[in-house]
Amino acid sequence: MLNAYEELEKHFQRLARIEHAMTFLQWDQLVMMPPGGSEARARAIAELAAMHHERLTAPQLGELIGEADQQPLDTVRRRSLLEMVRVWRRAVCLSADLVKAKSLAGSKCENGWRTQRRENDWRGFLGNFREVVDLAREEARARRAAEPERFTTPYDALLDLYCTGDDSDFIRHVFTELKRQLPELLDRVPDRQPEGLADLAGTYPLEAQERLNRKLMTCLGFDFNAGRLDVSLHPFSTGDRGDHRITTRFRETGFVDALMATAHETGHAAYESGLPAETDGLPVGRARNLCLHESQSLLFEKHLFQSRSFIDFFAGQVRNALPSARKFSGGDIWSASAHVTPGLIRIEADEVTYPLHVILRFEIERDLINAALEPVDIPEIWDEKMQAYLGLSTRGNDTDGCLQDIHWTDGSFGYFPSYTIGALNAAQLFAAIRRQYPDWPERLGRGEVSFVRDWLEEKVWRKGASMDSQEIMREATGETTGPAAFLEHLHARYLDRAY
Amino acid sequence: MLNAYEELEKHFQRLARIEHAMTFLQWDQLVMMPPGGSEARARAIAELAAMHHERLTAPQLGELIGEADQQPLDTVRRRSLLEMVRVWRRAVCLSADLVKAKSLAGSKCENGWRTQRRENDWRGFLGNFREVVDLAREEARARRAAEPERFTTPYDALLDLYCTGDDSDFIRHVFTELKRQLPELLDRVPDRQPEGLADLAGTYPLEAQERLNRKLMTCLGFDFNAGRLDVSLHPFSTGDRGDHRITTRFRETGFVDALMATAHETGHAAYESGLPAETDGLPVGRARNLCLHESQSLLFEKHLFQSRSFIDFFAGQVRNALPSARKFSGGDIWSASAHVTPGLIRIEADEVTYPLHVILRFEIERDLINAALEPVDIPEIWDEKMQAYLGLSTRGNDTDGCLQDIHWTDGSFGYFPSYTIGALNAAQLFAAIRRQYPDWPERLGRGEVSFVRDWLEEKVWRKGASMDSQEIMREATGETTGPAAFLEHLHARYLDRAY
User: In 3D, which of A220, A241, A245 has the Cα closest to residue A232?
Assistant: First the structure.
């Protein structure tokens, strides 16, 4: 007979199978499904989600958790139990009514936003958004009440869903330093940007680009026997063990953006492919948090692919694949990819300005959820912060200001910081790799990336969720997440034009 | 509050959502999934199947059925309940042990067959196959015991899973007539085949073929907003409301086979797309049986696409799409597609000889399940029947004899007859359409097929499972399924070379 902990393992593995079904049905929905299928698909996914929730919140599971907690468990199983409890608690702490109300208000607000954004209609948006914020605050309070010892503010309870283990105080501390140093660095960049950048605009047939992107993935260690590349409106990555699916998007007039997106998603897939097989299907076998997930994608995108030496290597492939690109050197491509221009839109932002977009959002959403700021005041504070951090104004232009992102429309508060903590983690991890492999430019210059993958697999991927995020960072790099390595990287790339 | 019948509707609609999930996960498995995903996928599908079975066999459902049966129900709901009971009874009448044993023995036998077939190893196959037959006999007895008033023999209880409503006595009767007339017709064909057939072999790029096949689907009324065409090892069709997915396969050296396969699967998809929306998700809203399903695919393949007038029309598209086909007239393509050669392999058989392959299998599997024949005697009786029906011998060549099909390896006895009853239904339905539209050749000759789709939608598709198969046939064509229209069609096409 199985003991309580073993029963729990079985229970969570069965839940993982329902998650597998939802994962691939959602992938299909975004990548393959014709429009006519949306109604039946939505109903099927909702049914699976309901079955999943029902099983995760079954009273029997709570009892098993209580029993297992009294068992003598070794460290590995104790940790595994902790992660099960985390998943379970997140599900049981919200009432079914709140979940339903949130989902309805979120759909309504997101739906309205699609036209309101275009029409710069903040007032119309606010009409729906107020309820989304009210419900998110209620959610935050409920989540905090379930674990008052862990969450010092309501916002922290939402942040924890994405940045698990990195709390708002820690993030504020790191961001403060970044906010102090970035504008100064940004001021110095324009003088160091090369004159007469090559214009990479041209005509690049989509089929040839697709082949080129597959080549890039193979160079970056992606295994096509255990995954796919497809095209979708927004690049994303998803999948399950042995089947990692990433998407990218192509435009005929350029080739760099697609390669960057592909490298980025290949990094996400790499993390997932390296998760520990022995705890497959259990919460402890999953990726630690989004801050580490994003660090892997950004490491592949910004530090591997976009490094001067890798681009020098890969430029040969580009020239082979795309006749109109024959005239470009590695230097041309690298310089064009590493160009800095402050702008209003986060998703178009370069590596240097991106964190300022995120810090602005972090500060606003934190105050919003902690009820230190009301929705009606967002446009004004957004404009103030844009002026302070990037010297740009969004006054009267909410389309390119506080209406630009989808995240808040359905109440996903707490997600934004993971982008920048991810960028800091990526730089810090790659700095550690550089220290261990001083010949890294030569290696990347001949297209060798396995030393990076092996290092990451050992230090990050194989850990799954068996350690806290900052334990992983400390063991891997010698310290917890901080801005130093990232700033040093920006300095080297954008001031010294070194790599 | 819902009454018992309404509760049942809700219950079955929820089951349909799990079926939706399994449908598209299986599609993905065959069309998209990389090899690395097979383990996780198999587990996920097994989990969904278990949840489906658990819900379908829940005691509560049996109670609701009992209650609903006592309710005053209108004809429509009474019929709907009948179909629910059919689905439910099929699930509850087998023990979990038998289902599991059958699945294990089937997997083992099918797996071994993949090499045993190649190696002409009947003895090795028999080692596994005996258990498959024993378990299928046990299954047949159990299914028959659940409805002794409906099934006069054990075989009928298996046949009913595929040919629902068309029992073995009815099928035997129809096949007897066919068996009497076909060989004679077959004897006369060679003299009527045209001399000097055009050789359609050439080089036809796959991308161009894919575009051509999409064009064919559009000509046949397929809506790409509600479906897809993809490539798989064996063509098939699947899907759900608003999302009908068919696959085909291409070879670079020919283009006719792919077009025939695509037309065939488009017919399957057409039936599904025309099922009644108002009973969506309920058993009564499904396709009636495989004999009618196959009739729609064969009608699209053999009577629409392969008609002389449609091919004359479509040949223009072929010549536009495939430069190497520019030299072929509609007549060339039609003659090549309508060539008869008796052979050993069912799936390569032409329209005239195919039924003889099926009748042979029907007679053997019926006697096998009814314990009038033992597995060990199959090769001998196979050879005897091949000699009698097609004048060919498989003595010592089981690879191309009784080892050629996958169906029996996992115990799917009762499936084969649907191919030929489907062919008879197709000819009979199309004869009725021809009677109603005497200008059918002119219509097809200008690529018009909507009159056929509209007729089928009204007479077959929209009926779902609200009538028995032979009621549908009688209302649509004036009589129950018989061989006359099929033989007349063969006569017209292969002796008179008319259409």
Answer: A245
